């Protein structure tokens, strides 16, 4: 990480940043993620002795806050290395702020182009502050504050100091790495699962919204925000559905069904990926149910992955409008979000994103199947990586060791693709993108 920071610093010192344009900013963002992922792999190789391919996968998984792993025997590993993994995830959680602080103030293009490149969600022009650099400091403060509160809550809930700090780093970043092979169920505490639920949700709610709430405004803003309100309602609804399903299958009692269902719904929809049960032993439909949660995603502007709730909302409203238009062909039915009409270009961007996300999952699943994995394992492995979730099902239920080297490189690319939201990376490969 330090070497990566030095490389970036040298680049910034020897480059006329006032001449950097939108194309250069996108290239800088993508290469920084890729380069840091490679550099972060060397400590993994030194400590664990895994191959370079597997080490890059582990490093990229951490920096993109995916949480997929090829390691076993975590309980016996040095605590310094375990904390290194957790810290990589924490740093990756708000990696966008690094680019905001290092590059945006010098771009001389209004401060929004790189922010648009890495800020999740289709609505990219919601400025938090007249000064982007000051806003970045506020966001890091909020990120650190929530992390400290999470660590304190874990400690009070029964974790020792090391585990409390380590798991707070991967909870708020919605990364999902643990210091134990059994993940959160190592502690066998429903109290800790409830604490984790709270802070995973905070990590998956827009940090822009956290900024506004802590900037002297009412906490009611959380509920007034359409995306956050619908996100919380979806979490509650899906948790109740899964709980009822587990209860009817007589898997657990009433309280355990609700606790385990809520925890795993929150873990998957926020793309954290913590586990607290042997999901392979759950009723068959529960696996697909949780994968769907991962695709729904968290809120835009958060550390969560997935398609993002704001896109889900707009997609639903577009589909609903088209159905209404069939019944009332001459009716004027605008799509609205937060009471405002959604512009045509925003709608097009959302539908394009959703289509490309679905297509990418299909193509990557087919490519992974060509390496020898079965369909279910391939599909859930791709879903786990492209949504920066972490755990899959089938052969990749506990770790990604069964995946071949070519599959590991494919999934490493999928993690970066998903973390940078597809078009940021793919635009670099279009000839028209580089034409002046």
TrEMBL record:
| Residues reported to bind K(+) | 65-66, 175, 272, 389
One Gene Ontology cellular component term attached to this UniProt record is: plasma membrane
Q: Name one GO molecular function term.
A: potassium:chloride symporter activity
Report the sequence similarity comment from the record.
Answer: Belongs to the TrkH potassium transport family.
PANTHER family, alphabetically?
Answer: TRK SYSTEM POTASSIUM UPTAKE PROTEIN (PTHR32024:SF3), TRK SYSTEM POTASSIUM UPTAKE PROTEIN TRKG-RELATED (PTHR32024)
Name of the protein in its database record: Trk system potassium uptake protein
Membrane-spanning segments: 25-49, 87-107, 138-157, 192-210, 230-248, 288-310, 349-370, 408-434
Pfam families annotated for this entry?
TrkH (PF02386)
- What's this chain's function? Low-affinity potassium transport system. Interacts with Trk system potassium uptake protein TrkA.
Q: How does it sit in the membrane?
A: Multi-pass membrane protein
Per the annotation, which location comes first and is thus the protein's main one?
membrane
Please state where this protein is localized: Cell inner membrane; Cell membrane
* Keywords for this protein: Cell inner membrane, Cell membrane, Ion transport, Membrane, Metal-binding, Potassium, Potassium transport, Transmembrane, Transmembrane helix, Transport
